[in-house]
């Protein structure tokens, strides 16, 4: 998968993507097939989802990503592409930005960074199984760092992208804030 100024190239074909965001974690899994069928009937071929860390790991310990895996498996079967926003920051729509309270309470920046690394490793394991390079539906991944010093944001975004690459995620990694993300040949995003 790659992209240029005109379109995404997925499985060797240029494609215009039309999509909508679904809060899969707020819907009953029994509703997912009907919601995805409605999207397809409306001409959509892309589903955007955000993976709020706080919903999957409210307490320290192993994250429960079974709902994410199940949703992505359904998208695989339905032939819908997926843009997955893995955070760790999920935005203002989630309490605490989707970051678990126990992470926000960590006093040390190093401890927060270590928690982020563990989270991304666990999410990456699910994403790899559904990566477009493996015949799956995950066509792109979006990262957003924990809120910090704006001057450090570019370095944080690059580090998050590098962590996902190191964990075997090959789908394009996007963010609206990092100029390198707009250049699909940039080392920080491509490798």
Structure write-up:
With about 190 residues, this protein is an alpha/beta fold. The protein is about 35% helix and about 15% strand. It has helices spanning about 30-40, 55, 65-80, 100-105, 110-130, 155-165, 185-190, and strands at about 1-5, 10, 15, 20, 45-50, 80-90, 140-145, 175. Strands 4-5-6-7-8 form a five-stranded parallel beta sheet. Strands 1-2-3 form a three-stranded antiparallel beta sheet, with no helix packed on it. Strand 1 and strand 2 (about 10) form a beta hairpin. Helix 1 packs parallel to helix 3 (about 65-80). The longest helix has 22 residues, at about 110-130. The two termini are about 15 Å apart. The model is unreliable at about 180-190 (pLDDT under 50).
């Amino acid at each position: 998968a790659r992209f240029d100024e005109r379109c995404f190239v997925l499985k060797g074909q240029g494609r215009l993507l039309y999509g909508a965001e679904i809060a899969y974690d707020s819907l009953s899994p029994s509703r997912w097939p009907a919601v995805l069928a409605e999207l397809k009937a409306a001409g959509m071929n892309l589903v955007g989802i955000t993976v709020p860390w706080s919903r999957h790991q409210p307490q320290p310990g192993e994250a429960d990503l079974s709902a994410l895996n199940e949703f992505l498996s359904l998208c695989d079967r339905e032939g819908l592409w997926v843009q997955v926003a893995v955070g760790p920051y999920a935005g203002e729509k989630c309490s605490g930005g989707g970051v678990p309270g126990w992470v926000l309470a960590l006093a040390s920046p190093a401890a927060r960074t270590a928690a982020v690394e563990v989270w991304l490793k666990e999410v990456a394991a699910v994403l790899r199984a559904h990566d477009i390079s493996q015949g799956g539906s995950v066509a792109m991944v979006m990262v957003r760092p924990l809120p910090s010093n704006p001057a450090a944001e570019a370095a944080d975004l690059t580090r998050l992208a590098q962590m996902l690459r190191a964990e075997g995620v090959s789908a394009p990694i996007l963010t609206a804030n990092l100029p390198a993300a707009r250049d699909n040949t940039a080392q920080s995003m491509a490798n």
